[in-house]
Amino acid sequence: MGPARGSRDPVRAGPPLRMTDGQRARVDLPLLDGGDEGAARSDGHQHELAHLHPVPHLCTIQIAQLQQARLLVEYAAFNAARAGVVQNGNDGSDGTAGPMHDAAALSLLSGQGPTDGLAALARTWAGFRAREAMLRAIGLPLVQVFVLNPRRGDFRRFGQHLDGQEIDFDDVRPQAVDASLLSIQVRYLVELRVPLANKLIHSLWLASRARRGKQGLDDGAPGDLDLASLLLAGRQGRYLLPLQAFHTLRMQSNAFLRWAAP
User: Fold this and answer.
1) Number of structural domains found in the chain
2) Would you give the distance in Å from CA 128 to the centre of its chain?
3) Is 172 part of a structural domain of the chain?
4) Residue 203, phi then psi, degrees to nearest 5
5) Residue 183: φ, ψ to 5°
6) Count of alpha carbons within 13 Å of 70, Cβ hemisphere only?
7) How many CA within 13 A on the CB side of residue 135?
8) How far apart are CA 69 and CA 80, in angstroms?
9) Cα–Cα distance between 90 and 84 in angstroms, integer?
10) Which residues on adjacent β-strands are paired with residue 167?
């Protein structure tokens, strides 16, 4: 029930309520209490964020460079296969020399340095070969090509008329057509160059392999890659990760037994 007629509501009709200076001070003081300590904590957090802030950005840049390198490896595998189909599947002695290796290496040069002009291309190629020789000395081929097909067993079946040493690339027998396809795998050790991010990504990758009890790369290639060598290179400031790509083309020359897959 509201107030009686003629009476005044003390809340509505009374003078507006105002805090005295003492009351205002008592209300404001708890808000200001510990202000210096809170500001110090805030400054500390901002200082930590200032140190952590670049790492995600650096990792993003490094991963983008890895993606670019992966595309180059795909291109390198295509060019290596193109060289192989007209060179009898020649992958050299162990995939680190020969026309397919050189075609793959040349395809990767744009990620190694300037290639705009013959002089720049020659300098980048020389630097690439020097790095390749240095890494090979510790058991790390920079670029390696593996032949996955043709296989040695097929030469006895489809190359009898050539003493089992070759397979005709234009043999029209259905099974011989598949046997004469050139399938290759290209492995490339890309170097991580972005500071902080390179060591972080390299360490995480090695740790993930170690947790699975892997001593080698075990990527299905005929030649395994020793992870201890990658760790050694990392301790020397060279953070390397293996990238791989596959490609298949029809042979345009007879496949030779000496370069066939096991």
Assistant:
1) 1
2) 19
3) no
4) -65, -40
5) -115, 130
6) 7
7) 27
8) 16
9) 6
10) 255
Q: Strand pairing of 143-149 and 255-256?
A: unpaired
**Angstrom distance (rounded) from CA 233 to CA 230:** 5
The H-or-E segment that residue 85 falls in is helix 54-85
- Residue 130 lies in domain: 60-147+183-244
| Contact (Cβ atoms closer than 8 angstroms) between residue 239 and residue 202 | yes
Which position has the token pair 């345009």? 252
The DSSP call for residue 79 is: H
The answer to whether residue 28 sits within a structural domain is no
* pLDDT tens digits in sequence order for the chain, 262 residues long: 455 554 455 444 555 545 555 444 444 434 334 455 554 455 555 555 455 568 888 889 999 999 999 999 999 999 999 999 999 999 887 888 999 999 999 999 988 888 899 999 999 999 999 999 999 888 899 999 999 999 988 988 888 788 889 988 888 888 888 888 999 999 999 999 999 999 999 999 888 887 766 655 655 566 677 788 888 888 888 999 999 999 999 999 999 999 999 8
Tokens of 117: 């002009």
Task: Evaluate whether 198 touches 69 at the Cβ level (below 8 Å).
Answer: no
Residue 158 lies in a domain: no
Q: Per the domain annotation, does 102 fall within a domain?
A: yes
